[in-house]
Amino acid sequence: MTEHGTAEPARSRAGVTRRGLLWWGAAAAALALAAADDTDAVLAGGFGSRGGPALAQHNTSAAARLKEEASPLRRSRSGAAAGATLRRRAHQPAQSAFSAPVFSLSDYVKRTPGTPAFPHNAVLLTIDDGPHPVWTPKILRLLHQYDAPATFFIIGRQATQYPALVRAAVSEGHHIANHSFSHPPGLPSLPRAAMTAELLDTQDAIVRAGGFTPRQFRAPGGRWSPQMMRLTAAHDLLAVDWTIDPRDWSRPGSQHIVESMLAADPGDVLLCHDGGGDRSETYDALKIVLPQLKARGLQFVTLPAPQPAKR
Ligand SMILES: [Zn+2]
After folding, report:
1. What is the pairing mode between strands 175-178 and 151-154?
2. Per-residue pLDDT tens for 195-219?
3. What backbone torsions phi and psi does residue 248 show, to the nearest 5 degrees?
4. pTM for the complete prediction?
5. Are residues 136 and 277 in the same domain?
6. Residues 125 and 175 in one domain
7. Active-site residue among 40, 175, 273, 274?
8. Based on CB atoms within 10 Å of each CB, which residue in 92, 115, 213, 287 is the most buried?
């Protein structure tokens, strides 16, 4: 299975890939173009979440306006015109059918009113592409050993194949979220019906295996599109991305994975994988990363407990 090979790093800091920190205008322009053309711009790492406004959708005039605003040429040509554009936008009713995915714990709290604040030293460990019959049990044992709760973004088809592993993760206090049914790299460009099936079949698989309805979704490879964002919101799923990606799926060596993950700051969302291939490097890295981050005073948290499934 291919994994996040198409996701481009948003920003590099000392060799560490961090997401969600790009100037949001590039993403806004791409989204506005997609809205105007009624096509799907696929954005991998193109969203900036911090302070980025929700974008109007299903509204070509709003889309055209955003496109205009996102163009430095337009802005520099006429200050008065730019001001008028901004005023019109300010008067536009808020339409947040989609917005940027969550990149950090502070994003998560902002986007989910009523969520209690996470501890000041919290980090969120997310583990994607399982459950896997070899690597998920090993990683579960490691998480148990270091008393480190995690959030598993699981693939629906594998949850159907290995439901006991989903139940094991839940019983150990971990959180489960939706990572599509078959992990198609081209999910953002699929027809709406196929995209919907990828979301909902996974919801069903998790309900059957884990006994609750997931409330978060992560796009395969972190590749988002406006249509996917709308669909995610329409099904009451919060789009969750990540802050730090050690690119462990590419097997860069456990030392690289360790160094990337040890760059975590409080509030970061860490990405790694228990599925999609040989995860021995990830496993070896976690043996070092889990105790070292805890020794630094960071606290592993999960997303809030899921609601019981509506059957
Ligand atoms: Zn994945």
Report:
1. parallel
2. 999 999 999 999 999 999 999 999 9
3. -65, -25
4. 0.76
5. yes
6. yes
7. 273
8. 213
